[in-house]
């Protein structure tokens, strides 16, 4: 992990002028439960100004070579300090690279700035467990995101997740399980821990799909959704999404 992470940090330092760079943090499973076989390297970058097109293209092109096999997938998120401090929901995200969009990047698409509800979840994770790669501790730079905004973000992500079920089955099921945990307990936990929590509360017919997603994530099984059955996968996803919607703020 160290060499790949060093490459990411060197890339950010090269493309973002030192006076414009506020901080860089590692977060996610790398700083909580430890990296699993399918874990991303999650990196969060805070800058003082928006990125210009040349910087966006440079980040995208170079991350295509750093992220993915033989190393780990990299998810790199950039925010402008003034867009998140003071906090507002939904906040503006300046840039995000993720392996799920590799084909689009290879066609020449470059991530642009957008309003992104999920920033509430990411920032909660960074402030709670982020490890400093450059700059001050996260709690000195970023605000504490209110629990109600984390809940709103979790619910807002459900339609998009369901739309990606066929292409990204494992990740969708695990993320839906984590959304359920977050709304029920207020905690943002690692995906395998979320699945373990949810498995104890799922009806029996929905357990095989989530159990398989967890086993694959932990490296305990090869991914094979045929053995679970597409109907069971879809039913499990629908049940998890239903639990999230039932717990959504204002749903009572």
UniProtKB/TrEMBL annotation:
Keywords: Antibiotic resistance, Transferase. InterPro entries: AadA/Aad9 (IPR024172), AadA_C (IPR025184), NT_sf (IPR043519), Polymerase_NTP_transf_dom (IPR002934). It catalyses: spectinomycin + ATP = 9-O-adenylylspectinomycin + diphosphate. Residues 14-53 form the Polymerase nucleotidyl transferase domain. Residues 140-240 form the Adenylyltransferase AadA C-terminal domain. SUPFAM superfamilies: Nucleotidyltransferase. This is Nucleotidyltransferase. It comes from Streptomyces wadayamensis. The lineage of its organism: Bacteria, Bacillati, Actinomycetota, Actinomycetes, Kitasatosporales.
